[in-house]
Amino acid sequence: MKTLMELENINKVYGNVTALNLINLDIVEGEVFSLLGPNGSGKTTLLRIMACIEKPTSGEMRFKGVKVDEGNINDVRLKTTMVFQKTALFNTSVYKNIAYGLQLRGYSKREIDEKAKEVMKTVRLEGYGKRPAKKLSGGEQQRVALARALALDTDVLLLDEPTANIDPKNISIIEEVLSRFNKERKTTMVIATHNMFQAETLTNRVALLLGGKIAQIGAPQEILR
Question: How far is the C-alpha of 35 from the C-alpha of 43, rounded, in Å?
Fold first, then answer.
């Protein structure tokens, strides 16, 4: 298995607060990797650096063996997508929410229609295309956000607490979708969670993050034992 992302000695400092402290981490192609830790442990900050939304204060990230810098950061951004814990949907239809990112990437109307239909079926929202996205339940909105990310078919899917504060039915659907999508598409996924059961059942490897530091990395059974 090839290494897709490498993070070496990553630090992130906000004023007097050190959010991440000497993070060293490799993400392997096709795996589902979880960042497990309590709120405030640095999980979201680490995901945002992986997504190239934020830059580390120091340290280096490599994508497919190439150092990420100003010359290629936009290309790397196009190869990753992130689903945030707080769902941010446009005040328009489900279909238009899904189509927006595809339009920016230059897909044709036919391709957008096909992809939107496919991902709505994947997240079990068939027939929801014309519905106002913001009038759906919290769990359904999160499924729209997930569909929007899946439609882009990027190399890496980053998920920040994808099932936090939603009902058990939607949690079950989202977990099943992620597991199936990874198996079928071999999409690399990094999931930030404080849910130990989710880390054990969904992921191949787990990094335990405490106070901005990685305390341990290993198979879920090793970490959770």
Answer: 6
Inter-residue contact 123 to 133 (CB < 8 Å): no
Which of these, 82, 61, 84, lies nearest to 4 by C-alpha position? 61
Spatial distance between the Cα atoms of 123 and 119, rounded to a whole number of angstroms: 6
Q: How confident is the model at residue 158 (pLDDT cuts 50, 70, 90)?
A: very high
Q: How many residues does the chain have?
A: 225
With H, G, I as helix, E, B as strand and everything else as coil, classify residue 17: strand
| Strand, helix or coil for residue 211 | coil
d(CA 160, CA 27): 16
What number of other Cβ atoms are within 10 A of residue 147's Cβ? Answer: 25
Contact 205, 1 (CB under 8 A): no
Buried b (16+ CB within 10 A) or exposed e, 41-55: bbbbbbbbbbbbeee
Eight-class DSSP state of 123: T
3-state secondary structure (DSSP) of residue 28: strand
Confidence band of 150 (pLDDT split at 50, 70, 90): very high
